[in-house]
Amino acid sequence: MTDKLKKIKSYIKKSCLKSTVPFLWESHLKIVEKNALWLLEKLPKANREIVILAVYLHDIQHIFFPKDIKKHEEIGSLEAEKILKKFQYNEAIIQKVKEVIVSHSCGKIIPKTLEAKILATADGMSHFTTDFYFSIYKEYTFDNLEEFNKWALKKIEHDYNKKLFFDFAKNLIEPKYKIFKSFFLCN
Q: Which CATH number fits domain 3-186: 1.10.10.10, 2.60.40.10, 1.10.3210.10, 3.40.50.790?
């Protein structure tokens, strides 16, 4: 890991721990990083630095602008650009990281590059290996449990079917996907 990358990691960790979402570092970003590193081992042609920078920066909106959830990817990519400039990354790297971040949710913009697909997959995998779906219930207001279950089932389907780009990752997550799906169907 380069010195600049270490400094970015440290900056994001400190920012996370001082924010309204201190749990984001341990319960999400470190898990996404672990998943991304695993994927990078299997997909060595990917640009490792772009992927890891995007891992640390993809949810930056939650740290600095937690109320702007509807513009998650857009705000995240713009804030990532500011941070990368602050740490003196060149324009080519900045643009690649922004492209990866802006597509990681697989909503309006679908990942096209290998690096973007790795981040989306690592992020999606993390949702099945943590208390992600349950922590959303604590953070956001749902009118009732039925509404939450409906949201959770839709999100589970999206995470599994739209964000996991590699069959070997889907195969690894499939048992957890089935468990989560049956849990929310039963409630």
A: 1.10.3210.10
